[in-house]
Amino acid sequence: MRFGVTGHRILPPRVAEYAADRWAHELPAGGRFHGVSSLADGADQLFAAHVLAAAGKLHVVVPCQGYAGSLISDDSRTRFEEYRRAASTEVTLPFPEPSEQAFLAAGKAMVDACDHVFAVWDGRPARGVGGTGDVVAYARERGRPVTILWVDGIVRD
């Protein structure tokens, strides 16, 4: 079974804890699953950490050349490189630099490579092309089951 992730880059702590707890209970035990992620800040990296800790196989979809430079912090860039090295497979899409089109293409590639999508998402429209709302809409169009992971009453910045 292949699980993908999409989600916000900045997560309120309660939402991050909730998502990690759900993955601990919903993903197959014993590493008998694959996780697909673009390793963006926030939800993607949190999911990648959980996949690796649960002995799952991590598959990475890198949106473009120079993607690490678009991450929020040095810590995020360090985790990105660590998770890339730990991944079973990696695909880099043919975009020369970070862009909304590259991010949307990566979200679609993730959906196309998985059986089920976890969305760490507040349910609001995407703030730019390729955001979480766009990826969730694409997953639903493709008939992929989508599990929304969010805590009622929490509003993101």
Q: Would you spell out the secondary-structure blueprint of this structure?
A:
Blueprint: E1 2-7, H1 13-26, E2 34-37, H2 43-53, E3 57-62, H3 74-86, E4 89-92, H4 100-112, E5 116-120, H5 132-141, E6 146-148
Parallel strand pairs: 1-2, 1-5, 2-3, 3-4, 5-6
Radius of gyration: 14 Å
Structural class: alpha/beta
The low-confidence runs, each spanning 5 or more residues with pLDDT under 50, are: none
Helix coverage percent of residues? 25-40%
Termini, distance in Å? 33 Å
Report the total helices: 5
Describe the global form. Answer: globular
What letter string, H or E per element, gives the SSE order? EHEHEHEHEHE
Q: Would you count the extended β strands for me?
A: 6
Q: Strand order of the main beta sheet, please?
A: 4-3-2-1-5-6
How large is the share of residues in beta strands? 15-25%
What value does the average pLDDT take? 95
The biggest beta sheet reads: 6 strands, parallel
Can you walk through the features of this model?
The protein is built from five helices and six strands, in the order βαβαβαβαβαβ. The protein is an alpha/beta fold. A six-stranded parallel sheet has the order 4-3-2-1-5-6, with helices on both faces. Helix 4 packs parallel to helix 5. The longest helix is centred in the first third of the chain and has 14 residues. The chain is globular, with a radius of gyration of 14 Å.
